[in-house]
Design goal:
One of its GO terms (cellular component) is plasma membrane. It is found in: Cell membrane; Cytoplasmic vesicle membrane. InterPro entries: Chitin_synth, Chitin_synth_N, Nucleotide-diphossugar_trans. It contains 26 helices and 18 strands. By secondary structure, it is α/β, with parallel strands linked by helices. The strands form three sheets. Strands 1, 3, 4, 5, 6, 9, 10, 11, 12, 13, 14 and 15 form a twelve-stranded mixed sheet that branches. Strand 9 and strand 10 (243-257) form a beta hairpin. Helix 10 crosses helix 26. The chain is elongated and about 105 Å long.
Length: 813
């Protein structure tokens, strides 16, 4: 949004304007900037490591805080002129992080106290260093965090720096090369000053990016909304406190929000404030804790560079499995690893062929800034207003915006007369941690499932906008087919509990239909009644737990339910295998000799065999083929069993818990309220004799900066015991939201219960016996035939999509 007077042009500072905006700062930075970067030492050189006596000195958890308070008290008062009416302070960093003669961007941290909303950042004449220096930003990366520790920041920043080094190594590229770092800006956004982890803050202090001694909470009585720190860092800091020379410099913008206003607000600062000024070509979204592979960001960028129609892209997110895959011992981690792998092998490639990926994960995705500007970002940030209470809306829309990244993808593809596409870039890989405990996993999926359901309904209801998106005719046909495919998948998702119940019922019936071949020694019918009654009981218990208890408060119950459902799944797989064996035996194929074509024909004529084998083959066999085609089959050997045993838990527990908590539209965090007054304020005094307005602030000296750096480094080196976060109780649900939850839950249960009652009734069995099987052996229920063949058809579509994705990759598309 340009400011009055026309002083602003995105992406580069103005040549001239009435305000003189940025001219002096630009001259300061240009001094020495063109000489090229000369590093502190060879990349990887250790600049400093905490010594044992230093660690002992700071072993008291409050020692670093005491050092900060002592230095804060002795800060000197400086009178500074305001920069375009804004408080901007430049302060030297610790001498250990730079060397004499380097440009100012390496030796001084730039602090800006922002007192406006992110949408008004440019209009209020705030300026960022890359803009003042006239640099063109090709790539802008945002790292969002809440209360993560330094270990997660270390993982992500290390990966980002390796990616920038890879860009710099591409010396033959027209875009990249030795000075690639000047075209990349890394933005770290911390959601709430009081929520930020103390050791996380210490790590940023050691990097030289964060200087708490410069911060104020008010400027001329206006509360500060965000604290901006800018520095071109030359070091890589590890969570142990070790400091090494980075292989390339990294332009860092650290935005510390004064209040906790959630992730969407962090993205609004990134897009509407910083990107609006720097005007990057491509933006990369990362969560702190996600580690991109050393060339992942390049591959994402390349997708936009080679195809002007790509508006968004994502890579392959993998599960962090630990050293020697040790974390796969945990069934929950193994099952999620399998789920992530199959999604990256089947779903994402298929959606990429169509051109519309349902969700580009916020933990690792990329967007062309030009593509998402305007209507897509307006729709995306509507969720912030809804969840902050600024906009009153119904429960449908509130739940829909729990999956705001899905809304952004839909709005991008349907942007009027734009013809943007979304692409899956397999070579771009990033790893992330997943919940390793069942209660946390359930809580996480509650928001995912509820948000994705209502976002999918929104997309289906507005699919007509595809016709005005400017896509070519063939692409419109493909997108409409994908919409119909998504509708079928949604129907199966909503009836998954009934389908699972009925699959068990019919498999038992088929396996025990002949008393002479009962797999349970003649007790099959009795065992069937026990299993079905136990399953119904589990469903009732899960509903009760979901309505009245948090998963963290019912850990034993949920673990027992998961074990029980796993045993039921084992019994179901056994009956499926036995049914196939009986069919093969009846066809005479268990004999070692004497096979004829008639035996094979007789086997294929058995509907029970056809339905089960086709369904299993369409699932497990296509999993194998697709995994081999993607050259990534190892998860089948390490995680398939865990996934199968936990699949009933995914179907029953996650679905029921999600529907039972539709009234809960929280993100698990609570925003702050009120302005803080613990940092001190800066009062503006009018200038005299034509001088600009000035402000008196307390700032540390260069010696203070070095002492603070040493204190933070020693603090970071001492390992602290992990403490559990005790969050405040959930906000009480509104009456309307609770009613909405109850009504929809009743409809959901009635839908699945109705299918179970109808298709397991004696009336249906009699109807099938009289009108379908007519006394023929080996016939199956028509309902299950429909289920099995539908599973086969859906799996085939996914497989074909993945096949054409790899085929197109071979031709460079």
């Amino acid at each position: 949004m340009p400011a009055p007077g026309g002083f602003y042009a995105p992406g580069a500072p103005p040549a001239s304007n009435g305000w003189g905006y940025g001219s002096q700062a630009q001259n300061d930075y240009n001094a020495g900037a063109g000489a090229g970067w000369v590093g502190l030492a060879a990349p990887g050189t250790m600049l400093a490591q905490p010594q044992p006596h230093m660690q002992q000195q700071y072993r008291d958890p409050g020692a670093h805080q005491q050092t900060q308070e002592r230095i804060f008290r002795r800060r000197t008062v400086k009178r500074l002129e305001l920069t375009q009416g804004n408080l901007v302070i430049e302060s030297p960093i610790a001498a250990s992080l730079c060397k004499p003669g380097q440009a100012r961007e390496f030796t001084h941290v730039r602090y800006t106290a922002v007192t406006c909303d992110p949408d008004e950042f440019v209009a209020n004449r705030y300026a960022l260093r890359p803009w003042l220096m006239g640099r063109k930003t090709e790539l802008m990366i945002v790292l969002t965090s809440y209360n993560e520790g330094p270990d997660l920041l270390d993982r992500t920043l290390t990966g980002v720096i390796k990616n920038i080094a890879y860009l710099a190594s591409r010396t033959k590229s027209k875009t990249w090369g030795n000075n690639a770092w000047q075209k990349v800006c890394v933005c770290i956004v911390a959601d709430g000053r009081t929520k930020m982890d103390a050791r996380y803050a210490s790590m940023l202090q050691v990097m030289g990016v964060y200087h708490p001694s410069l911060m104020v909470d008010h400027v001329n009585k206006a509360p500060v909304e965000a604290h901006l720190f800018e520095l071109t860092s030359q070091t890589l800091v590890h969570e142990s406190g070790a400091v090494e020379v980075s292989s390339v410099p990294i332009q860092i913008l650290f935005c510390l929000k004064e209040q906790n206003r959630r992730k969407l607000n962090s993205h609004r600062w990134f897009f509407n404030a910083f990107c609006a000024q720097l005007d990057p070509h491509v933006t990369i979204l990362l969560d702190v804790g996600t580690k991109p592979a050393s060339n992942a960001i390049y591959h994402l960028w390349k997708a936009f560079s080679t195809n002007d129609r790509i508006g968004g892209a994502c890579g392959e997110i993998t599960v962090e499995t630990g050293r020697f895959c040790s974390l796969l011992v945990n069934p929950a981690v193994a099952a999620q690893n399998f789920e992530y792998k199959m999604s990256n092998i089947l779903d994402k490639p298929m959606e990429s062929v169509f051109g519309f990926i349902a969700v580009l994960p916020g933990a690792f995705s990329a967007y062309r800034y030009k593509a998402i500007s305007g209507a897509p970002l307006v729709a995306y940030f509507k969720g912030e207003a809804i969840h902050s209470g600024k906009v009153q809306t119904g429960s449908f829309e509130a739940n829909m915006y729990l999956a705001e990244d899905r809304i952004l993808c839909f709005e991008l593809v349907t942007k009027k007369k734009s013809a943007w596409l979304l692409k899956y870039v397999k070579p771009a890989k990033a790893s992330t941690d997943v919940p390793d405990r069942l209660p946390e996993f359930i809580s996480q999926r509650r928001r995912w499932l509820n948000g994705s359901l209502f976002a999918a309904l929104y997309s289906l209801a507005h699919c007509g906008r595809l016709l005005t998106s400017g896509q070519p005719f063939l692409r419109k046909v493909m997108l409409i087919f994908q919409t119909l495919f998504s509708l079928v998948q949604m129907v199966f998702s909503l009836t998954a509990i009934a389908n699972f119940f009925m699959a068990l019922y019919f498999l038992f019936q088929s396996a025990t239909s002949d008393p002479n071949s009962d797999p349970f020694g003649g007790q099959g019918e009795a065992l069937l009644q026990v299993v079905l009654n136990v399953l119904l009981g589990v469903i009732v218990v899960v509903i009760i737990l979901s309505l009245g208890n948090r998963p963290q408060g019912s850990q034993i119950a949920y673990h027992c339910i998961a074990v029980l459902l796993g045993l039921i799944m084992l019994v179901g797989l056994y009956t499926a295998g036995w049914t196939i064996y009986v069919a093969v035996k009846a066809a005479g194929l268990t004999e070692l000799s004497g096979w004829t074509t008639d035996n094979i024909v007789q086997l294929l004529e058995l509907s029970s065999f056809r339905a089960i084998v086709i369904s299993l083959a369409a699932t497990y066999l296509l999993w194998l083929i697709a995994s081999l085609m993607a050259l990534d089959p190892w998860h089948l050997a390490t995680c398939l069993i865990q996934y199968l045993l936990l699949q009933p838990t995914f179907i029953i527990v996650l679905s029921l818990f999600s529907f039972s908590n539709l009234h809960d539209i929280s993100w698990g965090t609570k925003g702050d309220s009120g302005a803080a007054t613990d940092l001190g304020s800066a009062t503006v005094k009018a200038g005299k004799d034509g001088k600009a307005a000035a402000v008196e602030v307390k700032a540390p000296s260069a010696q203070d900066a070095q002492e603070l750096w040493s204190s933070a480094q020693a603090e970071l080196a001492v390992k602290r015991p992990k403490t559990k976060n005790h969050r405040s109780a959930s906000v009480k649900a509104a009456d309307a939201a609770a009613t909405f939850r109850t009504n929809l839950l009743v409809l959901y249960i009635a839908l699945n219960a109705g299918l179970i009652i109808i298709f397991s009734s004696t009336w249906w069995a009699r109807y099938v016996r009289q009108n379908v099987s007519r006394g023929q052996a080996g016939s199956t229920d028509p309902y299950m035939n429909a289920i099995f063949y539908s599973v086969a058809g859906l799996s085939a579509v996914r497989f074909l999509g993945a096949f054409f994705y790899h085929l197109l990759r071979l031709f460079g598309r």
